[in-house]
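Hi W.,

Here's what went into the run:
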Amino acid sequence: MPPRFNLCTAQKVISAFRQPPLASPRKLAIHPRFRAAQSTTPLQKRWNSSRNDAEDLPERPKGPSEDPLPDVSEEAAEIDRIMNKEKRCDGQPASPELEQGTPVSEILSRDKEAMKHMPKVMQDQVKKNGGSRSFSTSARSRLPDVQETNAAREDPSIAMVASMIGQATEQAPGLEAERHSGLKFDYPVSPANTKTLNFRKRYDTLQEQFTKMIMEDGKLSRAQKVMASILDQLRTSPAPQVNARRRLLGAPPAPQLPLDPVLYLTLIVDSVAPLFRIRQQKGLTGGGTAVQIPHPLTLRQRRRSAIKWIIDASDKRRDTHVAQRIANELLAVAEGRSGVWERRDQQHKLGIAGRANLGLAPRRR
Amino acid sequence: MAGHRSNCIAQAMQLLRLPSSTSRVTVSRAPSHLRPPRTQTRTYATSEEAVSPAAPEIDFSTSSSRSPARIVPASPAYFSGSPRFIDHVLKLEKLQTKYSGLPTMEASEAPRMAWFKLAQFRDFVGEPVPTKKYKSLVKILQRLNRIQPAAVPAEVRSTLESFLRPGNPYAQQLAPPTVDESGRARGRGKRKESSAVVHLVEGEGEILVNGRSLVDVFKRVHDRESALWALRCTQRLDKYNAWINVRGGGVTGQAEAITLATARALLVHEPALKPVLRKAGVISVDARRVERKKPGHVKARKMPTWVKR
Amino acid sequence: MVPSACWNCVLRPRAAATRALLPPSSSAPRVASAPFHSSAAQYAQPAKKKANTQTMMKHRQSMSIRRKKKKPVDRVRPPPVGERKALKKRIVLSNPNALEIEGMADLSAETMSNPSLRGTIMGLPVDKLDQLRAVEAFKPKQSWSLFRRPSTVFRRSTYEMGRLIDQITGDVEGAQQGKVVKKIVTGPKGSGKTVHLLQAMTMAFIKKWVVITVPDARELVSGDTAYSPIEGTNPTQYVQPNATSTLLSRVVKANQDVLAGLRISQQHPALKGLKPGSTLADLAKLGLQDAAVAWPVFQALWTELNATKAAPGVKDEFQPRPPMLVTLDGLAHWMGESVYRAADYTTIHSHDLVFVNHFLSLLTQGQTLGNGGLVLYATSTSNSPSNYSLEVGLDQLAARQEGVKPSSPEYPQPESYSDADPRVMDLFQASMSKDGLLELQTLSGLTRDETRSYVTYFARSGLLREVVNDQLVGEKWSLSGGGVIGELEKVLRRPQLSRPQVATATA
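Here's what came out:
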């Protein structure tokens, strides 16, 4: 549902709370065309939206959190760019400058030297010392007028909303005090990562995924034991000698890795994770031959395939314990010795070859 | 469906008929001298009446504006299947957007409201409302209900009240549990087949489970962590002593039953910790139990292997 | 002449005739062959089933019969024999990745009885590690491999033991010099009983004592080593030559320096190969070479070590013998029947094994070690048979220590019909005689201060990425069941995620 709001009221309410009468120019940069549209009735209406049929609310109360202006200006800029960019040879957007919204007049007021050299029109303007026309791209100078006109109208809804918000904000410290009244000790400090506060998500995402993939017959605690053992072995084995051609992605220096085994594990898995899988699609070219189409994977899917490869490769090792097999395979990956790297390279090669088939793939909606 | 539609049509017709019928009444009741001259069928007899003055000009400015040019239904949702329901939804959506700026509170803190159950709501609107659509309506109701009580407009309050089912089932509040005279708070929790009772006292972090050390009962560190998660996530592990009785089920079940029981006991001591505990997932009841075995199945769902002969 | 028709057809004319008359059956495929030949039709391959019969059966049926079972991945070769056991017993004492801790004190003659160092982490002296390995002081699952170098918490019990060893040696003034102190060390699982023995051994090595250890009591009674009866004993005693030989090898390896400096001072007529004037190390090596004489050699060594003066016939000057440390791990195994069988197939009580009996007898009599020393026997919780008699014995010991008289009704007694082992009860009865009272030492969790220094040790080794504060210490202390050090280590080595941030970081 597109927000349908009355600009004037919103601006009023905001100004009631922010003493500086002007919000940042970025928020106020509205294309004139859209300004007109907003002040009048909405152009199109949908029944399912919040249309005011009988009792039309000219002034809709706005909350403090509701600050729709940037959205609109961005929208305006976007539309303007789309509509005007092609017409202009230099390709410069003719939209309100969102990034540099400081009006020219403001700059000039600060810079006396520049004032002398400013265009004639502007000099006239200064001489006139007033008037509604602004030379800035923003609607900034317009705003006081709008405000004045609004203020002239006595609007009960503004007062109502303002008083409501005022009440609520007054109440906030009261609520805070009440919250702390039910405590015997200090309010707990929340962890850096709030997600791990939950006791079902206490482990690192990758560690948990790896553990669950090690698990057999639903024996989670056994898998966790294996995982702990793997991490211990990563921790105690000597730092990897990094292969220059197959280095771990974004890794800290190798000697630091073993002391943070979870990070070590994450880096190893992420480094050999494939970017896509190869989908064998039949019937695209006719004749029943399958076409290989690369299909992008999400982070979790990528990790899954990497973990699967690592575990598969570790099954062929000769060590006695599962944990040892997997740990050795992981170390081999870290040093670039493992066959998992070749597997990934091969997959990528196939994917690159299959790029041509992407056009054949049925469009997904 | 047809019944409802006919109802709507009747309503609309009534609406349409209203201006015309009133005009007819006024016409019939008007004194004869004020009656507008009637155009009569012309007879062949020539009489005085035949030379009576012509009819006055029709005043289009009054008559034409009163009756609509075409039939307009009362509700904009008239042509939809369930106009009254949609009217309600529209009204609520309007309220929601109108007051969306008001300060809200957490869903857990909002007053508990007994909205219409689906069947009751269907009776209320007299239309067959699908479950999913009713759910979306209830969602809006709950959003409106989350506005802070001090800031709730009268309009919202009255609208919300119209969706309450008669008789308030949540009127009777249980007395909140309190710490007993020796400073103990009691909490119970269940998970799988296990049930745990925890007595929580302020102390230094001594924990006994069934009179034994925590380490003896739970060999896995994971289970120990689970059991004490409520104290751990609120950083109260060195501030309370716990005396725990747990029975039934297996190790994991017992550990997580203790989690729930500890969290509840902790809430008795410090009710303000509720949001933290909620986020930590320790006061959410896990109501899953083992699914029963069914006759004709090998396990709860597994079917015996099908053999052709 | 070859007949024109085949014999088969000639011999079965009627069958062929009837088949020829019948219309061709729809099921049997028609094969292009001579009509009078039945063999082609008979030997033809059965008709291929059409593929669409499969589709008919799709509805609601399990395909499990036809499904191929997943082939297990066949490993290249199984791991070589003995690798598993070697891996299980492998002891790694250092982790090169862990950070070196600066300023960590070593256990030494000065520090071992320094009260101000209580609660700190102390490294084991590097030059003693080989000796400690020789006496099998380290066990595989004590996570020595996590840290840069082996080190232990200097607990209160450690400090007390250090002082005791000082006193027995005579370095510190006290009535204990040359005395024998006997202790049974118990405690819950992971409370550091074996490490307590390890600390005692380290201190004994520092003080140049003779250390004799039995690292695993189970090996003596579990039927792993050879045994043979001793002639002329009643009841029959049994000797375990190989076990004794390994014991001797441990003693020689660990105490080489001390034993090489001591000369024989007694007569040993039983040992023919012994030259007069040889050192005690030479004496012990006799038993290493020939397991058959291991037991007499051990007895000779024992008398030598406990001698207080030279025997009349020996010319060499008598060198004073050092005190001795005798340790044992896993006492419960020795408190019942062994799995060995006598000639009449009755089980042999473990006290009938001379090896076991020798070490147990140290608990009973008064001054069992001639030159003083320490007898430390620890129970084990990781591998221990449940033993009612031992439990009662330890209860009695604890009661005695608290001052309960054996005549009082509160004194713990074995329950009637409980089948308590009389020999074990006698042993405990005898060990509680007045002189050289047996003590019971119960280890429990670390205190908070000790926990704090242990947690800090983890953090400084780079294994724990947290800010160590009271909250963290308290949390770990509770999670480890009140500072039980083995559990504490398990808790601390887990990767931490959901730690609350330090207050300064969020504020």
